[in-house]
């Protein structure tokens, strides 16, 4: 049912945690399943995402997509990070079952919310 | 949204893992969200559940209910374990939001499936 990459990022999620005094924090909820996700960004003066961490109450698919999404935005500029879509994350994971696509939206939305938080602060 | 006990069992889930040569194994799926849960029971000659472990791809609510359910059945006899309902587990967790009740069913169903597996083998 799940690809090897999904199981890898689910079993060993990258970048789980919090960042104190983060440049931007995004919290989003999934109305369909009641899950929540929070992403912390550390953005330097050149607009580069130096560090990123996440926390979620979501399922394995939410954990795996967030883990992959944080890997994909790390080291990127803000514009590039905005182009890391839900679809790009799913492709990087070699796909997700259709019933789990809505879980993968949490990561994209949380990153956008965190970038928005950063933008409004700067 | 989530009680302290839910957050505790989600952050520090008890009895996560597998049991080799388990007396009974139960695997169930949740049609609503596509999540899966597996429970392993180690039952001694007196019919007492000596050890229990679980694995899930489910959300935080599934993790918390399974963790609590394994604590409630550990050390119990088979008949007592069958009385550990979904409702008893939710009560022990001080409740779950309505949208998450279907997640808590996974633990009860997986325990029943593992007990059934044990019964058919013995
Ligand atoms: S959403 Fe699938 S187990 Fe909770």
From TrEMBL, chains A, B:
In its UniProt record, a GO molecular function of this protein is: iron ion binding
Q: Which organism is it from?
A: Anaerocolumna cellulosilytica
Q: Which GO terms describe its biological process?
A: iron-sulfur cluster assembly
Upper lineage ranks? Bacteria, Bacillati, Bacillota, Clostridia, Lachnospirales
The full protein's residues present here are 1 to 122 of 145
Task: Please report the name of this protein according to its UniProt entry.
Answer: Iron-sulfur cluster assembly scaffold protein
């Amino acid at each position: 049912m799940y690809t090897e990459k999904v199981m890898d990022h689910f079993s060993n999620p990258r970048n789980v945690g919090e960042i104190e005094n983060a440049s931007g924090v995004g919290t989003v909820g999934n109305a369909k399943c009641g899950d929540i996700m929070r992403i912390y960004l550390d953005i330097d003066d050149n607009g580069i995402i130096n560090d990123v961490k996440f926390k979620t109450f979501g399922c394995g698919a939410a954990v795996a997509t967030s883990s992959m999404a944080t890997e994909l935005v790390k080291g990127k500029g803000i514009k590039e990070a905005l182009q890391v879509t839900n679809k790009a994350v799913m492709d990087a994971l070699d796909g997700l079952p259709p019933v789990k696509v809505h879980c993968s939206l949490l990561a994209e939305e949380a990153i956008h919310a965190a970038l928005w938080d950063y933008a409004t602060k700067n």
